[in-house]
Every structure is written in C-alpha cells, then in structure tokens.
Design a protein that fits this description.
- Helices cover 69% and strands 0% of the residues.
- The protein has 279 residues and is an all-alpha fold.
- Helix 2 runs antiparallel to helix 5, helix 5 runs parallel beside helix 7 and helix 8 runs antiparallel to helix 9.
- The protein is elongated and about 80 Å long.
C-alpha cells in the first residue's frame, strides 16, 4: 500500500513549526513524540484563535502583566476556539497515520472514522473526502477486511478521477492500493490491470526512479509472476485498457473499469459470505 501524503491547511507559523516537528518525529519512528507534537499544535492553534476575540486593550494590558497575572488571564479570560473542520480532518488523519505506522490499526481506524465524521461538514468537492476514504481503505486492508477496504478505495478513486483526471499521481495512488486489495482477494488478473493503469498514470507524471513508481512496478511484477504460476492462459496484458479521460458527471461507485466492477462484485460476495457465517 502507498500511504497518503497529508497537507496541512493554512495555519500560523508557530503551529506550522509544530506540524513540521511532528512529521520529523513520525518519519524517524518516534511515534509518541509525533502524537504529542500534533496535539500541541492543535492546542496552540485553538489558543491563537481565542486571542482573535480579545480586545486590543486587553492585549496591550496583557503585555504589562506579571507571570502570575498572565496565567490567571489565560485560565479565566482567554477562551480557546475550536479549529475549523478542514483543520480537524487534517489532524485526525495525521494522528491516524502515526498510529497506523506504529501498527496500532484499531486506534488508527478510530481517528480516520472521526475524520470522516467531521468531513461531512465540508463541501462535497473538498479533496479531504478522498483522502479520508483512502486512509480508511488502507487501514481496513491492514485489518484484512478487504470488502470494506475495496469500497472506500473505490470511492477515493472515483473522486480523484473526476477531480484530478486519470493520470494524476494521487489517482495512481488510489489505483495501486485497489490493486493491492484485489491481489489479496486473489483477484490477480484484475490486480494486474489496475497496477498497469497506475504505472501508466505515474510514468506520465514522475521521474523514472520515483519511489511511488518503483512500488507500483514491484507490485505489478509480483502479480504478473503469480499469474504465470497460475497458468499462461490467465495472463493477457495486451487486453488491459489505458486510463480513460475523466468524466465530469457522477459515476457509479466502481467507475467504468471492468476490474473495478469485479472488485465491487467480489466485495459484495465476501460480505455475504461473512454475514452467512455469522448466522
């Protein structure tokens, strides 16, 4: 799976600095410090928003206060203001990403679901929706709930194909991750098709040695080798269609690709089997 790259919304410089610190901790596997820095950033941002409601007179008076008086002012007068919905979605996704890196998938899922709940307040075309769906698909795949993972990843792909086009790197990310889920569901032929589309999309936009392109090509090669082991009659790369132009109308959840339709059908069958076992 290729993880989402998260972009913080516009924020004060000191908040941005805390986000950078959190990202550095995350990338160096200091997960506890990363979580702490993200939460500190949220608290600081809400305090700064609270200062926007303080009069200029009180701001000037604050400068002349003693440390004890300032502490009392912060507790009794200054009221932090909750950050905006898009900022909350970013923070929940960032926290979930740290938990996912730390192999705490249950806690990652909780953060991503929280992000999804807040994202309902954003406009339908907001890019955070696709990022939330992609993140949910990733963690459900880690939890081996492939039918649910496929559903969320297909939503993300549909949104990105319509908003960004079929050959955008973020569209390719969604394609690759769908391919991973299809591969794990033993839909190897469909996975080869999807990986090929992801490779074509990325090769048109990134340098030859780009890490994402390398990941997609490795995944494609693994799927192709598996198809060869299953039998040469199953391996038909020449029939893989190129990415189609984005259609600027609402599409069915699975898009127009036969592989995506197969993924939806596989997801429904897996869900029905799971429900049947529970009865």
């Amino acid at each position: 799976m290729i993880r989402e790259v998260l972009y913080a919304p516009p924020c004060p410089e000191e908040v941005a600095a805390l986000f950078e610190t959190a990202l550095t901790h995350h990338n160096t596997a200091n997960f506890a410090l990363a979580l702490k820095s993200y939460l500190e950033a949220q608290n600081r941002w809400e305090v700064l928003r609270g200062w926007e409601n303080i009069s200029e007179f009180d701001k000037e008076r604050f400068k002349l206060m003693s440390e004890v008086e300032k502490e009392h002012f912060n507790r009794s007068v200054l009221v932090p203001v909750e950050i905006t919905d898009d900022a909350q979605v970013f923070l929940r996704l960032a926290l979930g990403s740290v938990f996912e890196s730390a192999a705490q998938d249950g806690r990652a899922l909780a953060e991503y679901l929280h992000a999804q709940k807040v994202a309902v307040n954003l406009p339908p075309e907001h890019p955070s929706h696709a990022t939330v769906w992609s993140s949910l698909g990733s963690v459900y795949a880690q939890l081996s709930q492939y039918d649910i993972a496929a559903d969320f990843l297909l939503r993300a792909l549909d949104a990105r194909e319509r908003a960004l086009g079929p050959r955008h790197p973020d569209t390719a990310l969604a394609l690759n991750n769908i391919g991973v889920v299809l591969h794990r569901m033993d839909r190897v032929a469909a996975a080869v098709e999807i990986y090929t589309r992801a490779e074509v999309a990325l090769a048109a936009r990134v340098a030859p040695g780009h890490p994402r392109l390398n990941i997609v090509r490795r995944n494609l090669q693994r799927a192709q080798r598996r198809m060869l082991k299953q039998g040469p009659h199953n391996f038909t790369p020449a029939t893989v269609p190129p990415p189609q132009p984005a259609v600027m109308v609402p599409l069915p959840l699975g898009g127009s690709s036969a592989a995506l339709a197969a993924a939806e059908a596989e997801a429904r069958v897996a869900k029905q089997k799971k429900e049947a076992k529970g009865k």
